[in-house]
Design brief:
Elements: H1 2-6, H2 12-21, H3 27-49, H4 66-79, E1 85-89, E2 92-96, H5 103-133, H6 185-188
Antiparallel strand pairs: 1-2
Helix pairs in contact: 2-3, 2-4, 3-4
Length: 190
Amino acid sequence: MDARRREGSKFPEIDVFGDVYVRPGNELAESLHTTMVERSQLVLQESASQLPPETPIESVAPPQDAGFQILTETLDQTLGRRPGTYCRGMGNARQREPRPHSSAQSNSQVTALTAQVAELQGQMSVILQSLAQGGFPIPQFRASTSQPVHPEHAHQTTAPVDAQTTAPVDAQTSEPHTGDDPVDFASLFD
């Protein structure tokens, strides 16, 4: 690329694309290269418009990565954008993993997910009410006494229920089992 620049090429990436891919009969590569050359001329004209009118077009220097940007945008528009972002290196474009989301994006995702959870809870409440009105027995579940999977990322919002004193409930009748021995389920997971 540097050699091309020293030879006077303003868009060495586009020139290399033409040298490597444009072959007789390869109409797609020819079309892509023609589009890239046309776009590079538009970039030069735009750069020249910001200089005095007597400046010859040969003296106009385009933005540093203009050739690379034209090349990747043309390929993306024609072949479709693949996930990830492009980075420069060793004269070619390689794919890189998408950048991490900003905290603003994370906050908006949390807000959207919170709203979705609230909506789903409302739908579940409507379903449970409909089932109860239809005569189906609905067990009353107490808050979970289990610890979060990742306690460093979660906090408990309700007081734990004492598993020793809570009587087991029959899922069919929602009535407590009176003759069963209570089981401390929390001790099973210590």
